[in-house]
Write a structure and sequence with these properties.
Layout (H helix, E strand, L loop, with lengths): L9 H5 L6 E4 L5 H10 L4 E4 L3 H10 L2 E2 L3 H5 L4 E4 L4 H9 L16 E4 L5 H13 L3 E4 L2 E2 L1 H7 L2 E6 L2 H14 E8 L3 H29 L4 H9 L6 H5 L22 H17 L5 H17 L18
Parallel strand pairs: 1-2, 1-4, 2-3, 4-5, 5-6, 8-9
Antiparallel strand pairs: 7-8
The structure holds nicotinamide-adenine-dinucleotide (NAD).
Nicotinamide-adenine-dinucleotide (NAD) binds next to α5, β7, α7 and α12.
Length: 317
């Protein structure tokens, strides 16, 4: 119960001896992130509720555990990539009387949660971890599934300098840009600011493309024009919401995979809650939240670029 020493030191994490890693949550993002760690020579023990998800990682060389505790039994580092705050809470702190993973980890274990959750939830887990002598970092990511596959994610980290230094070489395997945003929760605050802007940009880009298409323009020609003009943004660069404008993006694949609309809605709700709690005005964010709330009623599992269907439902067929 949090008394053994994990054996992880700065020297080890920065140098030759690679720590064993427990990876929990192997969905659209977690699976490719874990695969990149395997490719870099880390020993991984993985856990997910879905057998399909763990089978993919087993094929890639990970050992599959029967519980988070089993996954972490021989690990110095735990990484999680779970859908929302309630999943992070139940894995680390437990629920319905069941003990969470934190209580099982040796002192000195490094826990990196890359899920996007409320800063308050991240601080709660960090506080519980700190009481047990465990280093906790909130380390949400940006860059989408493409970035997760390519190992080019942006990590936005909150937590102590020491824990950040230990985590950096591991995060560098999965990401290209690694920011230390500040203390516990700071990573999550920065992440929801980014995702509120992304929700606004995606909704606005879909709206602009639809206006052009309804006025006789080819969506690819219009996208190319805006890409070289002042409307240029990330969605036009790598994630066009209109089908067949770009290859290898969810809109050209029936809006499957990618970043589910319900997860974007979760992030927008987190941004709205933060704005409310801190008395900050976010009118554009509020509009994007309203649009995604309506969209997710029928399309929650589709990629968030499917907000295009709000204007033209034929894109879904
Ligand atoms: P996902 O739904 O594809 O994957 C989540 C995985 O967690 C699933 O495999 C699920 O079975 C597993 N899971 C749920 N509860 C669990 C539990 N108690 N124990 C073990 N496994 C459990 O979601 P995703 O797209 O991979 O997103 C994960 C997180 O990353 C979310 O917080 C999301 O907001 C964030 N994110 C996603 C993207 C993206 O483009 N998909 C980009 C940046 C950030």
């Amino acid at each position: 119960m949090g008394t053994k020493d994990s054996g992880l030191s700065n020297k080890e994490s920065n140098n030759t001896a690679k720590p064993n890693i427990a990876f929990i949550g192997l969905g659209n993002m977690g699976a490719p992130m874990a695969e990149n760690l395997l490719k870099a020579g880390y020993t991984l023990s993985v856990y997910d509720l879905s057998a399909e998800a763990t089978a993919r990682l087993q094929q890639a060389g990970a050992s599959v555990a029967a519980s988070p505790k089993d996954a972490a039994s021989n690990a110095q580092v735990v990484i999680s990539m779970l859908p929302a705050g309630k999943h992070v809470h139940s894995v680390y702190l437990g629920n319905n009387g069941a003990e969470g993973l934190l209580a099982e980890l040796p002192k000195g274990t490094l826990v990196i949660d890359s899920s996007t959750i409320a800063a308050a939830d991240a601080r709660l887990v960090a506080e519980a971890a700190s009481k047990l002598g465990i280093d906790f970092l909130d380390a949400p990511v940006s860059g989408g599934t493409g970035g997760a596959i390519a190992g080019s994610l942006t990590f936005i980290v909150g937590g102590s300098d020491d824990a950040f230094a230990k985590a950096e070489p591991i995060l560098a395997v999965m990401g290209k840009n690694i920011f230390h945003a500040g203390e516990h929760g700071a990573g999550q605050v920065a992440k929801i600011c980014n995702n509120m802007l992304l929700g606004i940009l995606m909704a606005g880009t879909a709206e602009a493309i639809n206006l052009g298409v309804k006025n006789g323009l080819d969506p690819k020609v219009l996208s190319d024009i805006m890409l070289q003009s002042s409307g240029r943004n990330w969605t036009l660069e790598v994630y066009n919401p209109y089908p067949q404008v770009m290859e290898n993006v969810p809109s050209s694949n029936g809006y499957k995979g990618g970043f589910m609309s319900k997860l974007m809605q979760k992030d927008l709700n987190l941004a709205m809650q933060t704005a409310k709690d801190t008395d900050v005005e976010t009118p554009m964010g509020a509009k994007a939240t309203e649009l995604y709330e309506a969209h997710t009623v029928e399309n929650g599992d589709k990629d968030f670029s499917s907000i295009m269907a709000r204007h033209d439902s034929s894109v879904l067929s």
